[in-house]
Design a protein that fits this description.
This protein folds into two domains: about 5-195 and about 225-245, Alpha-Beta Complex (Spore Coat Polysaccharide Biosynthesis Protein SpsA, Chain A), CATH 3.90.550.10; about 255-335, no CATH class. It contains eleven helices and 18 strands. It has helices at about 40-45, 65-70, 80-85, 100-115, 160-170, 185-195, 195-210, 215-220, 230-235, 255-260, 320-330, and strands at about 5-10, 55, 90, 95-100, 120-125, 135-140, 140-145, 150, 155, 170-180, 240-245, 245-250, 270, 275, 285, 290-295, 300-305, 310. The strands form four sheets. Strands 1, 2, 3, 5, 6, 7, 8, 9, 10 and 11 form a ten-stranded mixed sheet that branches. Helix 6 (about 185-195) packs across helix 7 (about 195-210). The longest helix has 16 residues, at about 100-115.
Length: about 325
């Protein structure tokens, strides 16, 4: 019986949710999951029962952070291709907000079944509900094997006019960056479309097999940095898509989070101790002190122990500019 190995990529900090998301508290450990759980824990629980084993891929600097959220993980360093070359791999991001367990389970089982029984790579897609300019799209207009569509092309994050056209045309899906494939099939496609990357990976594996972790680390750091979409998925002729029907969001900024938090009668989404006077349509997340506002509309206020963010909701995507400014000023204690 084919084994299913789930892989959760959990790296980076998610700078667009500063000042809550930082190097010490990356986005995937923020309590934005079901019942206030960390997103990483939410993803792990979603995969339990769907995979034989679950692995988390992250940088060494986040090891203690990951272990604090998932203490049941062991710290063994594994190369999946050596462990189970004919297994099916299921990749699911650590920092997505997802609701609808039954629909998720149905989509995952379809993807794993198709990947196990064919030499196809399988992506998950979500039928768009509005013309998003923050997400990539996958064009999959023709039916494939039961439960799938055949992928024709990828579309990078479009402008608003293009996004509206895609929504109206149909046959386009949001790219969730969830995937499934047999490990041996993926490696074969990596060899076809990114041979330098595969050759570099083999050198890393050889160094580790020889017990030279320092050389393996150096070789790995020298590998090309490219997302799998561009290196393989946009080039392969073996790609299928499973249309999904669950509630999903990749919270990219505070305004998007505010849209998903229950608001009061004045449209304010609030956490912590607050006093709001003539304030409407605002996201206000307090920390250890009282936050008082007067006459505000469509604002974002995020308080933490050592930093306070205040900006209009319409400028939420610019929070990364604050992070860039802090880096330039070498104020790393706030990052």
């Amino acid at each position: 019986m084919t084994r299913t190995l789930a892989v959760i990529p959990a790296g980076g900090a998610g700078t667009r949710l500063w000042p809550r998301s930082r190097a010490s508290t990356p986005k995937h450990v923020l309590p934005l999951g079901e019942g206030g759980r960390p997103l990483l824990r939410d993803t792990y629980e979603r995969l339990r029962g769907l995979a034989d084993e679950i692995f988390v891929v992250s940088e060494a600097d986040q090891r203690e952070i990951i272990e604090a959220v998932l203490p049941e993980l062991d710290s063994e360093h594994l190369t999946l291709a050596e462990r189970n070359p004919d297994a099916v791999m299921l990749a699911m991001a650590a920092d997505h907000v997802v609701r609808g367990r039954t629909a998720v389970t149905r989509a995952v089982r379809t993807a794993v079944r198709v990947a196990a029984g064919s030499r196809s790579l399988v992506a998950f897609g979500l039928k768009p509900t509005f013309p998003s300019t923050a997400l990539g799209y996958i064009h999959a207009p023709r039916p494939g094997p039961p439960g799938t569509k055949r992928v024709k092309r990828f579309i990078e994050k479009p402008d608003l006019a293009t996004a509206k056209r895609l929504l109206q045309a149909g046959g386009y899906y949001w790219n969730l960056a969830w995937f499934s494939w047999r490990i041996d099939v993926f490696l074969a496609e990596l060899g076809r479309h990114a041979p330098r990357h595969l050759a570099g990976l083999r050198k890393v594996v050889a160094a580790r097999a020889a017990g030279d972790e320092a050389a393996a680390k150096r070789l790995y750091a020298g590998l090309p940095v490219e997302v799998v979409d561009r290196s393989i998925l946009e080039k392969t002729d073996r790609l299928l898509l499973v249309p999904a029907e669950f509630d999903w969001a990749d919270i990219g900024n505070w305004a998007e989070l505010g849209d998903r938090v229950r608001a009061d009668v004045r449209g304010n989404s609030v956490e912590g101790d607050t006093v709001l006077v003539d304030t409407r349509g605002s996201l206000i997340l307090g920390d250890r002190r009282l936050v008082a506002t007067i006459g505000l509309e469509d604002m974002i206020i995020i308080d933490t122990e050592d930093a306070l963010l205040v900006c209009p909701r319409s400028r939420a995507q610019d929070v990364r500019k604050v992070v860039e400014a802090l880096r330039r000023a070498r104020k790393t204690r706030y990052l």
